[in-house]
């Protein structure tokens, strides 16, 4: 059915999109899993769907608080390509930097970019940080209320909910990518099987959406590319974007990995390359590998000559296939 202009504007208004956003955003089968999602989150999700199978958004993970500076990757891309990525990847990994992570995410969103945040969740009964995220934690015990492990886990969940609530209150929608690479065995949340993982995902989703009302989140599920196993899929009711990752240097067009995710989620979700080493060749993307975005990891994964040459980056970031920050629509910009 074709809507006339009045009907299209009415439909857009339901989603909070009447101020300049196109009517395709009102597609009823492309709604967020959280029915209370903020207008900004719904606008962003509608835009992502509009690009899926047409364009691929560029993404870059920041180095974070360590030397030389958290903007090093952005500065490098700007200098080498004349462009900035559409999506900036950030990480709740260092409690001393987490408030600054929120500030950087806010600045990025208010200057027209898209923010995605992951969480290298240190084992709750050990401590924070990347190395502690690789230490074991008794997830099965933690899923039982009243246990010491449950108390520690819920403490951490509450703290990260507090961090995300700052971005909610600032009007910043977030591509939230928790518990990433869950089918690998290197992080504790991937060591206790699919049922425990799905219970943890459901618990976090319930806490964040129902208890803490974090309605600014778009939930991104990220398989480890070596093992895209359907047994770990929590289901469409709690997932908004699905993805997989790869760090192999000569990865080709990644069509087989895309097909593995597609076989699980079908057309119900857009599919992203949630982490990668070398930037994928835009000439190899298309019907067989329609990644919604890619997210190059930081430091050597961006600047290493064995990963991306400056010539390659200039070619890729100026390609027709890829969307950079300057090409994002102005109405996505977070309001102050």
Strand order of the largest sheet: 2-3-4-5-6-7-8-9
What Rg, in angstroms, do the CA atoms define? 19 Å
Instruction: Tell me the count of domains.
Output: 2
> What coarse outline follows from CA principal-axis ratios?
globular
Report on the biggest sheet. 8 strands, parallel
Q: How much helical structure, as a percent, in the residues?
A: 25-40%
Poorly predicted runs are 1-28
CATH fold category name of the largest domain: TIM Barrel
Helix count equals 11
Q: What percentage of amino acids are in beta strands?
A: 5-15%
Per CATH, the architecture of the largest domain is Alpha-Beta Barrel
* Average pLDDT number: 91
Content-based structural category: alpha/beta
Order of helices and strands: HHEEHEHEHHHEHEEHEEHHE
CATH C-level class of the largest domain: Alpha Beta
Number of strands: 10
State the end-to-end distance. 37 Å
Q: Please identify which CATH superfamily of the largest domain we are dealing with.
A: Glycosidases
Active site: 181, 275
Family: Belongs to the glycosyl hydrolase 26 family.
GO molecular function: hydrolase activity
InterPro entries: GH, GH26_dom, Glyco_hydro_26, TAT_signal
Describe it.
The chain is an alpha/beta fold and 336 residues long. The protein folds into 2 domains: 1-30, no CATH class; 33-332, TIM Barrel (Alpha-Beta Barrel), CATH 3.20.20.80. The protein is built from 11 helices and 10 strands. It has helices spanning 5-14, 39-51, 72-81, 98-110, 130-133, 139-142, 148-169, 193-211, 255-265, 300-303, 310-317; strands at 56-57, 59-61, 87-91, 114-118, 174-177, 217-222, 241-246, 271-276, 294-296, 322-323. An 8-stranded parallel beta sheet has the order 2-3-4-5-6-7-8-9. A two-stranded parallel ribbon has the order 1-10. β5, α8 (193-211) and β6 form a beta-alpha-beta unit. The longest helix has 22 residues, at 148-169. The two termini are 37 Å apart. The model is unreliable at 1-28 (pLDDT under 50).
């Amino acid at each position: 059915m074709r809507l006339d202009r009045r009907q299209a504007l009415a439909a857009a208004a339901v989603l909070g999109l009447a101020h300049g956003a196109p009517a395709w955003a009102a597609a009823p089968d492309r709604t967020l899993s959280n029915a209370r999602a903020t207008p900004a989150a719904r606008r962003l999700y509608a835009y992502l769907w509009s690009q899926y199978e047409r364009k691929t958004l560029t993404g870059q993970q920041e180095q974070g608080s360590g030397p030389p500076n958290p903007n090093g990757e952005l500065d490098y891309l700007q200098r080498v390509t004349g462009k900035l990525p559409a999506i900036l990847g950030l990480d709740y990994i260092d409690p001393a930097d987490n408030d600054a992570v929120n500030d950087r995410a806010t600045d990025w969103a208010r200057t027209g970019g898209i923010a995605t945040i992951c969480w290298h969740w240190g084992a709750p009964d050990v401590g924070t940080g990347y190395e502690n995220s690789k230490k074991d934690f008794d997830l099965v015990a933690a899923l039982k209320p009243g246990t010491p492990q449950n108390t520690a886990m819920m403490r951490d969940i509450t703290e990260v909910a507090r961090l995300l609530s700052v971005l909610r209150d600032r009007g910043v929608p977030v591509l939230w990518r928790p518990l990433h690479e869950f089918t690998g065995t290197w992080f504790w949340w991937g060591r206790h099987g699919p049922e425990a993982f799905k219970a943890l995902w459901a618990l976090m989703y319930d806490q964040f959406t129902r208890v803490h009302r974090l309605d600014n989140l778009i939930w991104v599920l990220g398989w480890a590319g070596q093992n895209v196993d359907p047994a770990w899929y929590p289901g469409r009711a709690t997932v908004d974007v699905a993805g997989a990752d790869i760090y192999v240097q000569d990865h080709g067009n990644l069509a087989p990995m895309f097909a593995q995710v597609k076989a699980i989620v079908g057309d119900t979700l857009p599919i992203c390359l949630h982490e990668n080493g070398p930037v994928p060749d835009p000439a190899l993307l298309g019907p067989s590998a329609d990644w919604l975005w890619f997210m190059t990891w930081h430091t050597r994964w961006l600047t290493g000559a064995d990963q991306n040459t400056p010539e390659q980056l200039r070619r890729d970031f100026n390609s027709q296939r890829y969307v950079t920050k300057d090409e994002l629509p102005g109405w996505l910009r977070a309001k102050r």
